[in-house]
């Protein structure tokens, strides 16, 4: 059975990773567009680099939580595919082997000249760090106004789902939220979030599990085990 999981910020919140933005639209005290847009990068690249350097250091000091570990464990019984809006690597560190990052990866950097020149990067990224062509490196993050290049692959994965699971996302961020439209008709959808958004679906049965990721995953595992029988 092929299970496709769409994970968001709530998936990693219990590991200590800050959620994307707070109620007033700020991210760690910064206006989103200052640190997550090409305009912000052009205006103040030092600020942008400092922001992501802090996020990278934080990531290196946290560990996967029980929800990450449980999804990895499910690979023993199911064909698991994870599509994540998160830029951390906690799914991979937990042991999940099929993870697609929609919005980039914090532990990678890419050339400002060629988006195909991507490098593993675990330390601070600074002005003067250059790609092999001598151009400045930037965080390998999809900023506002940039194309989500992994979307086509994500839609293809969603279209093959036999069970679709949403964990820890408001389903307000597009185009990621639009992946529900690619789930085949009749395929069950489980939505785990302590404050789930209202969703009206006409083609798919949806079950809300109004719990945190680490608590909701326990309920999900029971339901998936029943599907195996």
Helix content: 25-40%
Morphology: elongated
Indicate how many domains the architecture comprises: 2
**Low-confidence spans: pLDDT under 50, at least 5 residues?**
none
Distance N terminus to C terminus? 12 Å
Helix vs. strand class: alpha/beta
Quick one: how many beta strands? 11
Q: What attributes does this structure have?
A:
SIR2/SIRT2 'Small Domain', 2 domains, 229 residues, 8 helices, alpha/beta
Describe the structure.
The protein has 229 residues and is an alpha/beta fold. It folds into 2 domains: 1-17 and 65-103 and 147-229, Rossmann fold, CATH 3.40.50; 19-61 and 110-141, SIR2/SIRT2 'Small Domain'. The protein is built from 8 helices and 11 strands. It has helices at residues 9-13, 32-35, 38-43, 45-59, 66-73, 90-94, 151-158, 213-228, and strands spanning 2-7, 26-27, 30-31, 79-84, 99-101, 104-111, 118-120, 137-141, 163-167, 189-192, 206-209. Strands 5-4-1-9-10-11 form a 6-stranded parallel beta sheet, sandwiched between helices. Helix 5 (66-73) packs parallel to helix 8. The longest helix is centred in the last third of the chain and has 16 residues, at 213-228. The mean pLDDT is 92.
Provide a short characterization of the protein structure.
The chain is of the alpha/beta class. The protein is 29% helix and 21% strand. It has two domains: 1-17 and 65-103 and 147-229, TPP-binding domain (Rossmann fold), CATH 3.40.50; 19-61 and 110-141, SIR2/SIRT2 'Small Domain' (2-Layer Sandwich).
